């Protein structure tokens, strides 16, 4: 079972109320199922608002499924991007091999929705989380969970913690290789081999492969950045080759965010043995939602680099609440509502068809306000009450601000309709 459909379907029985940001009061007291039955208009919702675009999500999901299948790699999308079981289900149904997560609690949440295979892209040394992983694996022998280790001390601590845990299968651990000035991960192959040997000698841990994250080593498409990523991935491939003789069984080689997936495929896909000893796993998380900012500028799968290419599946909507100066409009959304760590929101259109004043640009966000500068514009060109659609950058820090996100049929339509509501868990 890849996910428990009954548990996911039960989210439609959730009762809407004022605890759901921007949901219209007329919907309070209705279940999600009851509310959606009337195919309500987005215009009935309050601002600020984050929405998802149904067509973009479907297209992005299919594009990545087809691309990874053609490349011969498995896909374990990083679930922390959305923390939305409904979207995880769609990704798994499209062929995803697993769901990747970052903390024991996130893994526990995913397991409560029946996710059957989890890649925990992190070290697991929390005693409570480690004991849970063993107990859950013992309770259901079809459940698979993997975690990472980047030092001998980490492996020894895991083994020590597990000595007091109830009986259960060994925890499958991947050796994490890092890089200079990167994030976590053993800094050299020599150190990484020592971690593998410690796993081989451990009592309740098992060597399961090698892992890493190339996105920590570059943040652009400059020649130096691409070279750093390729060099790192080459080291990861070499480490896997060195460890091939001591794997106790099948092995996993995993890397990949959403910025350099084609480099991961170029450098690692050749290690895969279909139906055999090695599975290469890509862990991209942002592809499903994509964006109008960082990932649109760097992903090789975004249009126009690719055709048809990934496209933004999320938008912000905010209302003009003040025009205190001729060239300034204040919108009612801010840092509490929209992401800003990888670029500020980009004004795209005014609801109702009126064009945005030329040169409109967001220059700052406060907690609940967006500063929209309008060079050369007058107050009549964007009056108080106007609703502006915003392009956003970085889905990871968009979703964590919303417990319930409406999915609309068409973000470009004059009167979009709400066709689903996505629950998130942060």
Automatic annotation (TrEMBL):
Pfam families: D-ser_dehydrat
Positions of the D-serine dehydratase-like domain: 313-409
SMART domains on file: D-ser_dehydrat
Name of the protein in question: Amino acid deaminase
């Amino acid at each position: 079972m890849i996910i428990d459909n009954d548990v996911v379907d039960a989210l439609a029985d959730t009762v809407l109320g004022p605890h759901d940001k921007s949901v219209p009061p007329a919907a309070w007291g209705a279940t999600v199922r009851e509310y959606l039955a009337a195919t309500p208009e987005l215009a009935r919702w309050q601002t600020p608002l984050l929405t998802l675009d149904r067509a973009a999500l479907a297209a992005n999901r299919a594009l990545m499924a087809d691309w990874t299948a053609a490349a011969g790699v498995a896909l374990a999308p990083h679930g922390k991007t959305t923390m939305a079981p409904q979207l995880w289900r769609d990704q798994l149904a499209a062929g995803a091999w697993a769901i990747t997560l970052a903390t024991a609690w996130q893994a526990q949440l995913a397991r409560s929705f029946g996710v059957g295979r989890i890649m925990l892209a992190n070290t697991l040394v929390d005693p409570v989380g480690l004991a849970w992983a063993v107990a859950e694996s013992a309770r259901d022998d079809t459940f698979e969970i993997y975690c990472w280790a980047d030092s001998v001390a980490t492996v020894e601590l895991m083994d020590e913690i597990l000595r007091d845990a109830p009986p259960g299968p060994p925890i499958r651990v991947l050796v994490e290789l890092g890089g200079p000035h990167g994030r976590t991960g053993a800094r050299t192959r020599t150190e990484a081999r020592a971690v593998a040997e410690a796993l081989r000698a451990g009592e309740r841990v098992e060597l399961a492969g090698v892992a890493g994250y190339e996105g920590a080593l570059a943040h652009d498409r400059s020649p130096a950045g691409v070279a750093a990523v390729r060099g790192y991935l080459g080291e990861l491939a070499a480490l896997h080759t060195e460890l091939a003789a001591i794997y106790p069984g099948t092995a996993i080689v995993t890397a990949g965010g959403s910025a350099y997936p084609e480099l991961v495929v170029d450098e690692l896909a050749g290690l895969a043995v279909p139906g055999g000893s090695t599975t290469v796993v890509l862990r991209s998380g942002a592809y499903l939602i994509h964006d109008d900012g960082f990932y649109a500028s760097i992903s090789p799968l975004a249009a126009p680099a690719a055709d048809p290419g990934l496209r933004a599946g999320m938008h912000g909507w905010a209302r003009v609440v003040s025009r205190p100066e001729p060239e300034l409009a204040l919108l009612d959304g801010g840092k509490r509502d929209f992401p800003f760590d990888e670029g500020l929101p980009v004004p795209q259109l005014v609801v109702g068809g009126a064009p945005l004043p030329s040169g409109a640009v967001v220059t700052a966000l406060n907690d609940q306000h967006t500063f929209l500068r309008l060079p050369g514009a007058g107050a009549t060109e964007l009056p108080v009450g106007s609703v502006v659609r915003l392009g956003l950058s970085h889905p990871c820090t968009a979703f964590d601000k919303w417990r319930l996100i409406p999915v609309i049929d068409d973000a470009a339509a004059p009167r979009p309709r709400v066709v689903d509501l996505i629950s998130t868990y942060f």
